[in-house]
């Protein structure tokens, strides 16, 4: 059955669907970067509110700033912006059609329609999921003012290429019309993600309009948030699954049966009452962010790189491998958890047990390739900060050094069975060049100062990294895991 407003009443039995009148929804949010995660997470929370008769004036308008976003736009508009969510659990599968999104803007080089839409006073939140590597940060974590897109947006602020330039142009138009700003809400996996978004917006605005930058800084809001739900990429298997259920959805989303959203309650133009459907609103997100980013996101990198080297196709298959799962547990327990604070009702040890259960879910086909993607951002953002804390505390770094050596080995582009690891990072060519050099000179990998400036001079880390990478190339990844697990 084709998915659309006209077929909602006749969807297969057992499929949950919108109980609200979608024709009466009005927009309050523009979301930029509308992929699977947003539809399974933020849009789902809003849909749940609407199912209770709340937040009907907070519907989502989708947007994208990359040419590739146009394909998603076509698919979703064809089905009235409805999405089938399929929850995958070892005990069974369930499906739900959500309808909190009501439009998807055209994808334009100058982002003119996006800017006009964000200028509308009805839009009170502009949210983003543009991936961890999409914030134009340099090696020090500051805005990379040498990037071509940033230079363009600073030079031509009325015709920006980036989401951030479009946001600034819309905020300028609102200021010039005497309107208050909207809240800028980052939903990406970044520590202090709201502050990072503020830094990028203010930093870019200062390049062309310092007075506007001051106005944004004083009046707009950039709440920090922690988001969590495992959402695999959609491929033919997922499309086949939704067809088996009886729905023709061109862009279905599968997800685990777990969600968490912790939001700093700091909004300048109101917000939906997300706490009514399970989100946590707080004044201090940092401890939640730190626990999730360090244990789950860094933990993903612990698994995915060795998984790629060994040809383990999914995260669940990594967890089913006794040696790899033991490696994961040991690194987490001895070298990550000591640098994570407890949050209300949840210790690091309990959170680790929860993560292990989630990662081991065989119903979730979350590929090691997807999780290993953009390691240059994910190691820099998730793993290296833990390593820095461990070095400062004079704690063990042997396992973390092995994690980094496995990343270096993976970036050489060949699995141990000889099969090719296709390019999987925006900086793949540079990473591969460094990885090939590091085969005979491990220190060449650590010379990538954009990642290792804060740790490469630590002699204990450097020695451990050299030993691990030498052993991996000589005897294989499993030999390295064996040695580490024996310590």
Automatic annotation (TrEMBL):
List the keywords (alphabetical). Answer: Oxidoreductase
Keyword Ribonucleoprotein carried by entry: no
The record places domain Mannitol dehydrogenase N-terminal at 28-275
Q: What is its EC number?
A: 1.1.1.67
Q: Does the keyword Chloroplast apply?
A: no
- Per UniProt, residues of the Mannitol dehydrogenase C-terminal domain are 284-466
What's an example of a GO molecular-function annotation for this chain? mannitol 2-dehydrogenase activity
| InterPro entries for this protein | 6-PGluconate_DH-like_C_sf (IPR008927), 6PGD_dom2 (IPR013328), Mannitol_DH (IPR000669), Mannitol_DH/Oxidoreductase (IPR050988), Mannitol_DH_C (IPR013118), Mannitol_DH_N (IPR013131), NAD(P)-bd_dom_sf (IPR036291)
Q: This chain belongs to which protein, by name? A: Mannitol 2-dehydrogenase MtlK
Instruction: Give start-end ranges for the coiled-coil region(s).
Output: none
Which EC class is this protein assigned?
A: oxidoreductase
């Amino acid at each position: 059955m084709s998915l659309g407003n006209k077929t909602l009443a006749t969807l297969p039995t057992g499929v949950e669907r919108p109980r609200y009148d979608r024709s009466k929804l009005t927009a309050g949010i523009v979301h930029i970067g509308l992929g699977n995660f947003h539809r399974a997470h933020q849009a789902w929370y809003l849909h749940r509110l609407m199912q209770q008769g709340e937040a009907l004036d907070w519907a989502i308008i989708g947007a994208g700033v990359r040419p590739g976003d146009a394909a998603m736009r076509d698919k979703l508009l064809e089905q009235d912006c409805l999405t089938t969510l399929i929850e995958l659990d070892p005990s069974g599968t369930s499906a739900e059609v959500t309808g909190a999104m009501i439009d998807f803007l055209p994808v334009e080089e100058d982002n003119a329609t996006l800017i006009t839409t964000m200028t509308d006073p009805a839009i009170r939140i502009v949210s983003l999921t543009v991936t961890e590597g999409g914030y134009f940060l340099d090696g020090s974590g500051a805005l990379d003012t040498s990037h071509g897109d940033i230079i363009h947006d600073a030079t031509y602020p009325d015709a920006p290429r980036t989401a951030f330039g479009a946001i600034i142009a819309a905020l300028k138009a609102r200021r010039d019309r005497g309107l208050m700003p909207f809240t800028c809400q980052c939903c990406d996996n970044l520590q202090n993600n709201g502050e990072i978004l503020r830094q990028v917006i203010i930093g870019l605005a200062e390049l062309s309009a310092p007075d506007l930058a001051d106005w944004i800084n004083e009046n707009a809001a950039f709440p920090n948030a922690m988001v969590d739900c495992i959402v695999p990429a959609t491929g033919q298997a997922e499309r086949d699954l939704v067809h088996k259920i009886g729905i023709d959805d061109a862009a279905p989303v599968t997800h685990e049966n777990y969600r968490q959203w912790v939001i700093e309650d700091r909004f300048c133009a109101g917000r939906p009452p997300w706490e009514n459907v399970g989100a946590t609103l707080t004044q201090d997100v940092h401890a939640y962010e730190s626990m999730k980013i360090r244990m789950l996101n860094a933990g993903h990198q612990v698994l995915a790189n060795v998984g790629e080297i060994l040809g383990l196709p999914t995260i669940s298959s990594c967890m089913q491998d006794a040696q790899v799962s033991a490696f994961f547990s040991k690194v987490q327990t001895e070298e990550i958890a000591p640098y994570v604070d407890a949050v209300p009702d949840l210790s690091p040890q309990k959170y680790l047990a929860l993560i292990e259960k989630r990662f081991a879910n065989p119903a979730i086909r979350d590929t090691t390739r997807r999780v290993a993607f953009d390691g240059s951002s994910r190691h820099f953002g998730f793993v290296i900060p833990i390593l820095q804390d461990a070095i400062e505390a004079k704690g063990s770094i042997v396992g973390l050094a092995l994690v980094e050596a496995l990343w270096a080995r993976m970036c050489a582009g060949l699995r141990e069975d000889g099969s090719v690891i296709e390019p999987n990072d925006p900086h793949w060519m540079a990473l591969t060049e460094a990885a090939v050099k590091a085969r005979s000179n491990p220190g060449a990998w650590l010379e990538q100062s954009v990642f290792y400036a804060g740790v490469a001079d630590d002699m204990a880390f450097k020695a451990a990294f050299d030993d691990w990478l030498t052993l991996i190339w000589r005897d294989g990844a499993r030999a390295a895991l064996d040695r580490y697990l024996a310590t």
